[in-house]
Amino acid sequence: QQQVKQSPQSLIVQKGGISIINCAYENTAFDYFPWYQQFPGKGPALLIAIRPDVSEKKEGRFTISFNKSAKQFSLHIMDSQPGDSATYFCAARTGGSQGNLIFGKGTKLSVKP
Amino acid sequence: DAGITQSPRHKVTETGTPVTLRCHQTENHRYMYWYRQDPGHGLRLIHYSYGVKDTDKGEVSDGYSVSRSKTEDFLLTLESATSSQTSVYFCAIRDDDRSYNEQFFGPGTRLTVL
User: Fold this and answer.
1) How far is residue A5's CA from residue A17's CA, in Å, rounded to a whole number?
2) In contact, B104 and B2? CB cutoff 8 Å
3) CB distance A49–B100 less than 8 Å?
4) Cβ proximity of A37 and A47 under 8 Å
5) How many angstroms separate the CA atoms of B48 and B76, rounded?
6) Best mutation target, A10, A90, A103, to test chain B (most B CBs within 10 A)
7) pLDDT (average), residues A76-100
8) CB contacts < 8 Å between A and B, how many?
9) Is B84 helix (H, G, I), strand (E, B) or coil?
10) Do A107 and A91 touch, CB atoms closer than 8 A?
């Protein structure tokens, strides 16, 4: 019940296309859902995040869509660029004061020129 | 970059030896975390700290211990390293001044246990 399932494991998209990464969870007590972007040899960097009382959040070319009833959320990267090639992790935070993050297993995105 | 440094950045050691990894932060954050990252597993929480001398276990704490004697430093110790502990280790802080109490990660330490 504490898992976050992420798909696909890898994704190849043409430059200018839309990249879509999906995550699903079971625990309805999760209270915050961030996405992290990681380049090789670097630490994960917070990209965008959403709370479950919001259905969509957009920051530039990055959008999170959140479906509370289905317990699913997704990251959409519009006009994908080669510089977006990285590994993306979704996560969910357990509620309460400790609020630890549970991460999906990651999606390796390659954007072809 | 949230003022997080990790040392060493790379380490090769032998099975059975003790290893200590250090995480240092400059911004007085109360919460600090140690994760390990392995292919196909994402990031998994090892231990976390919610203040000086206050620590708790995460999902994969077996074989690891932590200490926090100062706000700025969080140490991860492998008492007797095993090959299964070969991994990339990330430290993170939680910024409680931000609206979502977001976590920010350090640059990582790549540990190889031969």
Assistant:
1) 24
2) yes
3) yes
4) yes
5) 10
6) A103
7) 93
8) 48
9) helix
10) no
- Residue A78 corresponds to which tokens in the numbers above? 């519009």
Note whether A50 and A31 are within 8 A (CB).
no
**DSSP run (H or E) holding B93:** strand B87-94
pLDDT of residue B100: 84
* Residue-wise pLDDT tens digits, A50-69: 999 999 999 999 999 999 99
CA dist., res. B15 & res. A45, Å (int): 32
Residue at token pair 């976590």: B103
Residue A5 confidence (pLDDT) above 60 = yes
Find residue B105's DSSP bridge partners.
B92
- Measured between alpha carbons, how far is residue A37 from residues A2, A88, B82, B113, B114 in Å? 22, 5, 29, 27, 30
Tell me the nearest-neighbour CA distance from B18 into chain A, angstroms. Answer: 24
- Distance from chain centroid for Cα B74: 7
Q: One digit per residue, pLDDT tens: chain B, 114 residues?
A: 569 999 999 999 999 999 999 999 999 999 999 999 998 889 999 999 999 999 999 999 999 999 999 999 999 999 999 999 999 999 999 998 888 889 999 999 999 999
Q: Quick check: B55 and B33 in contact, CB under 8 A?
A: no
The alpha carbon of residue A32 is apart from the nearest alpha carbon of chain B, in Å, by 8
CB contact under 8 A, A106 and B44: no
Amino acid identity of A48? I
SS3 A82: helix
Q: Which two structure tokens, joined as six digits, stand for A45?
A: 């960097």
Total residue length of chain B: 114
